[in-house]
Amino acid sequence: MGNPVENPGLPEHVHRRADEDPKAEKRAERQVASLFALSALSTILFIYSYFFIKKDVFAFIPLLGNMNIQQLLLGLGLAGAFLFIGLGAVAWARQLMPDTEVVAQRHEFRSADEDRKEFVETVKTQAAAAGIGRRPLIKRTLGAALGLVGLGPIIMLRDLGPLPEKELEKTSWKAGTRLVTDPGDRPIKASELEVGAVVQTLPEVDHPEHRSLNDIAKDPVLLIRLRPEDFNLDAERLSWTYEGIIAFSKICSHMGCAVALYEQSTHHLLCPCHQSTFDVTRAAKVIFGPAARPLPQLAITVDSEGYLIAKQPFTESVGPSYWERDSK
Questions:
Q1: For 286, left (φ over 0), alpha (ψ -120 to 50), or beta?
Q2: Do the beta carbons of residue 299 and residue 240 sit within 8 Å?
Q3: What is the pLDDT at residue 280?
Q4: Are residues 203 and 178 in contact, defined by beta-carbon separation less than 8 angstroms?
Q5: What is the Cα–Cα distance from 216 to 200, expressed in whole angstroms?
Q6: DSSP state at residue 327
């Protein structure tokens, strides 16, 4: 066997130019400050694009094709804001922060009290050595970059829109409104529905091709036919049904997804988004999942021609629950 390899030790420390040349140190400081300033400017670009560039402005960009200018500048602004903060931090660490090697010998897991005290003092000393206190240019630009970059995500919260407040109480359903098939806009007679049938409906309107998206999002109703003896309803809710036909809002009371699955053997409605499950026989009571309240029930009857109609509008808001709504 050959002789063991001797420990070569640490290579000789190579000082950086910024450690020895005051001019190089100033250049490095200006470079770091410039990167932080670019981050702040990128955030300003993001804010300007969000508020002052129209959403329908497009332009041809080489290699990218026809681009929405607002979206392009929003992306560049937010990316630049975070990128230049990162680059500035790296440049600061590589060129200006202390650059001395320290050998720490292995010791037991808990340091002695003297070592712990010494560590605290070292942290304080090295924090001061990092230069944030004596480099006002870096301190100001870093503060501006960090202060502005947080505005981007906060501003984007505006796109969530206002709270619906009373808007979810308003639908197109009125007393006497016929239920029509969706799709097709065909009036439905009670005699057409067999036990176990499920039909998606909308309120009849004069010009169905011009329904607004706002109405389409709130108006859908599911018709389900059971045997009358299957219901477990109080007298008022039972009076809202017609010969075993019951109607519920199709919009889930959790997050507003479309309740689309009906299990005939159990009489359960299921929302596919988060698995909220509603018992049709008990006025769509929630029996599983995150929904906080039953699906709103629409009172129905028939008109003189036998077509299904609404007795009255919904008596409660359709759609998802939120913090301003009573969850009763």
A1: beta
A2: yes
A3: 94
A4: yes
A5: 12
A6: -
All structural domains of the chain with their residue ranges: 17-101+126-160, 165-310
Token pair recorded at residue 206: 């004069």
CA distance 276 to 291: 6
Could you tell me the CA-to-CA distances from 321 to 11, 100, 255, 287, 293 in Å, in that order? 66, 59, 7, 17, 8
| Tokens representing residue 256 in the block | 């507003």
Total Cβ atoms within 10 A of residue 182: 19
Write the Ramachandran bin of 85: left for phi over 0, alpha for psi from -120 to 50, otherwise beta. Answer: alpha
pLDDT value of residue 134: 65
pLDDT at res. 305: 92
Three-class DSSP category at 219: coil
Neighbours of 275 (CB within 10 A): 13
Q: How many CA atoms lie within 13 A of 76 on its CB side?
A: 12
Closest CA to 96 of 147, 22, 39: 22
Burial 104-128 (b: 16+ CB within 10 A, else e): eeeeeeeeeeeeeeeeeeeeeeeee
- Is residue 200 within a helix (H) or strand (E), and if so which, with residue range? strand 198-203
Q: Give per-10-residue mean pLDDT for the chain (328 aa).
A: 74 81 90 94 93 88 86 92 94 83 65 78 67 73 85 76 64 91 90 92 87 83 93 94 94 90 92 93 93 93 93 89 54
DSSP string computed for 143-190: HHHHHHHTHHHHHHGGGG----GGGGG--S--TTPBEEETTT--B-BG
Q: Which amino acid is at 93?
A: A
Residue 239 confidence (pLDDT):
94
**pLDDT reported for residue 328:** 44
Q: Which string of DSSP letters, residue by residue, matches 256-276?
A: --B--EEETTTTEEE-TTT--
Query: Which superfamily is assigned to 165-310 in CATH?
Result: Rieske [2Fe-2S] iron-sulphur domain (2.102.10.10)
For residue 296, cis peptide bond before it (omega within 30 degrees of 0)? no
Structure token pair of residue 113: 């009290």
- pLDDT value at residue 235: 93
Distance separating alpha carbons of residues 216 and 169, to the nearest angstrom: 14
